[in-house]
Design brief:
single chain; five-stranded antiparallel beta sheet; two-stranded antiparallel ribbon; alpha+beta; 7 helices; about 160 residues; about 30% strand
Length: about 160
């Protein structure tokens, strides 16, 4: 069984405009057929951190589908010492897309690849799970202008999926 972490966007249900689901739900049956599971923690920007346990083929299918892999790390306390420049750039771009500022990223993880390589995967996920906003349906769309909320800690997700 392979383990992977992903940053997954919420998408609307086609037949229910005031609801949403995680894009990874498209793989739920395949993951369950593998004897695996997944769990999530909603984070900033209509995204969730998702840990998946499934076959390597299913993990690769999820990546091919276009769901952003958090990194190749699976152990939370693993140093990101072999993080490549493209991985660093992709993760930083994803964090910006989610709504974090460059100043927030730099303050938490550092302003260079060298500094990021001294951090653990846990520190990256904990930063990504710093906050989220309460959502509401305004009659036309789901909007993210509610009160700031605390996210589920990545340790909780890590323990749910083995």
């Amino acid at each position: 069984m392979a383990i992977a972490w992903f940053v997954v966007q919420y998408v609307p249900y086609n037949d229910r405009p005031n609801t949403r689901r995680l894009a990874i739900d498209a793989f739920t049956r395949q993951i369950e057929a593998d004897g695996g599971s997944w769990a999530e923690a909603e984070v900033l920007g209509n995204y969730a951190l998702v840990k998946v346990s499934a076959s390597t083929a299913t993990i690769n299918a999820i990546k091919a589908y276009g769901i952003f892999p958090a990194t190749s790390y699976t152990g939370l306390d693993t140093l990101m010492s072999d993080l490549s420049n493209p991985e660093y750039k992709a993760i930083q771009d994803q964090l910006l897309l989610m709504g974090y500022t460059q100043a927030e990223i730099n303050a938490s993880l550092g302003s260079s690849l060298t500094l990021w390589r001294q951090k653990t995967f846990r520190q990256l996920l904990e930063f990504a799970a710093t906050r989220k906003f309460n959502i509401r349906w305004n009659g036309t769309a789901i909007v993210f202008d509610g009160e700031q909320q605390v996210c589920i800690n990545p340790d909780v997700i890590d323990k749910r999926v083995k």
